[in-house]
Amino acid sequence: MDTDVVISGAGPTGLLLGAELALAGVRVRILERQQARHGQSRALTLHPRSIEILELRGIADRFLAQGRTVPGWHFAGLSRRLDFSVLDTRHGYTLFLEQARTEQLLEERARELGAEISYGHEVVSLAQDDNGVDVAGIGPDGDFRLRAAYLVGCDGGRSKVRESAGIRFPGSDGTMSSMLGDFAVADQEAIAAAGRTPLLIAPLSGGLTRIVVTSPERMRVPATEPVTFEEFRATLVELTGTSFGIAEPRWLSRFGNATRLAENYRSGRVFVAGDAAHIHFPAAGQGLNTGLQDAMNLGWKLAAEITGWAPPGLLDTYHAERFPAGQLVTDNTRAQTLLLELTLVPGYQRPVAALRGLLDSLLEIPEVNARLAGLVSALSTSYPAPEGDPLIGARATGRMFGPEGADLVHSGTFAYFGDGAEQVAEGWKDRITVAGTRPENLSELLVRPDGHIAWVRRATDPPDAALREAAITDWAGAAVRR
Ligand SMILES: Cc1cc2nc3c(=O)[nH]c(=O)nc-3n(C[C@H](O)[C@H](O)[C@H](O)COP(=O)(O)OP(=O)(O)OC[C@H]3O[C@@H](n4cnc5c(N)ncnc54)[C@H](O)[C@@H]3O)c2cc1C
């Protein structure tokens, strides 16, 4: 083998996955088609669960230092914003951080841990057998071949890995598109005076201004068609009466609402993650965030398999857990996009305004806010558990963890809290960090490396060493016998 894992694509998903694998001591090579980072940012948001997983690895501060927080985010562009501050987390906000910076920080992290990143290397085909995957590509010195135990396609919506592995990508084609422009010059007074317009405007670093516009006249233009400066300017004037003084476009792009979800996130020794597994309209800013959760879920499982302690079936839980999460995102963005699309269809303005008003009033109900905020922030993501306590599969919250809880999994191990410390330390010392504290309101708690709950024992249930061993073995593999 040339390496344990090849990752195709050094976007946010591939970079976090590479870091997670390297953290576990796995040899990983990330191949990136581009010659260098282009510096453009599609995404601008990191939602609460993303901050939490970065905190689990002790690196959240790096990201927080470079962005600014806002109390929540929108859903379907409704006037009333989602309030994340009511959620059960230390990070009840959205971090406004440009994707280029997120990628830069993730790349630094991956390199620090020893992941090898090769720019200018495009993956073009793969062939897998029972023992590994042969990856073929084109690099700066011509064709190359690599053999690895596993290959992960983090190569975006048009994933070559997904296609070559024969993973189907069913869904719906786009029916509408929006235009995006980053401008070096914009009349800030006009922007401030604009108030509520059919636009999304955001200040970017370097004095740039991002404007996103969806126009009834241009919304049926296919997302693949390039945007011209004149088209953008004319659309602004048509919709708002002003061009906002835009000049010196740094990036113009069109994006649409094609929505697709990989039928299987795994095909033998090949996996897909991030946009390679799911595409949708960027409503409520969830794509990058979802990719980070995919990476966090897959990293430790793949590392466990390579290191040799994975219990049977562990790798299959990646699809079982992340596919439903992908379904939630593709469904909620479909719903949000429909509302946006209908707003723009002639004849629908009045009824859609009435519907928006109704939804805004519903968002005033705390439970409705909590439900949608939990969905968009990904804090309510709970992985399917066949039986047992309903907490199993949910994320471990800071309250359960105690103040130092998140620190325990910095090194990517499981964390165990409770009465069986001696048994756990003896049997799984290499995989489980044993806490000195007890979890709040529980007798025992086993937290997975990705921060989700593997097993709990309630205070009302009697201790049972055999049950504990069975539960731990299910996720962390067999105990080491000496
Ligand atoms: C306008 C817009 C706004 C958005 N805003 C948000 C937001 O606010 N919040 C949010 O969470 N999400 C947002 N998104 C979505 C977000 O940008 C994506 O979900 C995210 O970039 C996906 O990350 P990824 O690493 O999975 O894929 P990508 O970022 O697409 O990275 C894939 C990488 O693979 C490389 N690659 C492709 N093919 C190959 C190959 N054959 N060999 C080697 N390398 C290859 C590419 O060059 C690329 O670097 C937005 C999207 C758009 C269009």
From TrEMBL:
SUPFAM superfamilies: FAD/NAD(P)-binding domain. Residues 2-333 form the FAD-binding domain. InterPro entries: FAD-bd, FAD/NAD-bd_sf, RIFMO-like. Its cofactor is FAD. Keywords: FAD, Flavoprotein, Monooxygenase, Oxidoreductase. The keyword Nucleus does not apply. GO terms for molecular function: FAD binding; oxidoreductase activity, acting on paired donors, with incorporation or reduction of molecular oxygen, NAD(P)H as one donor, and incorporation of one atom of oxygen. Transmembrane segments: none annotated. The keyword Nucleus does not apply. This is FAD-dependent monooxygenase. It comes from Amycolatopsis dendrobii.
